[in-house]
Amino acid sequence: MPVAKKKTTKKVAKKKPVKKAAPKKKVVKKVVAKKKPVKKAAPKKAAPKKKVVKAKRKPNPAFMKPLTPSAELGAVVGTKPLPRTEVVKKLWVYIKKHDLQDAKNRRNINADDKLKKVFGGKKQVNMFEMTKLVSKHLK
What we know:
The chain is mainly α. Helix content is 29%, strand content 4%.
């Protein structure tokens, strides 16, 4: 038996009436009497800003004070009195010249016979510990 198809009808929603916008109000401009122009004082110009020159950094005098190295340290950096900064520089020159930096960890210094005396008999010293140990040999 053939089944008859039902007709489907779409329901259309009723349109609501659109409200009209309220009529615009007229804007009334007030007439103002013109005032006489008042002379104003000339605007003062701002004083030009002074350029602030940064003073060059002055080295700490404590670092620049010449210190006499001990006999053990003197064998590496010389026996003349030197500022602490110069002593450390000369130590690094000695370390690089004799290839005493550790190959794997570059922060460590492998001491040779001269440096062992300065480092208190240690074979290997950290570079930060080195300055601490060297300061014991300066007066």
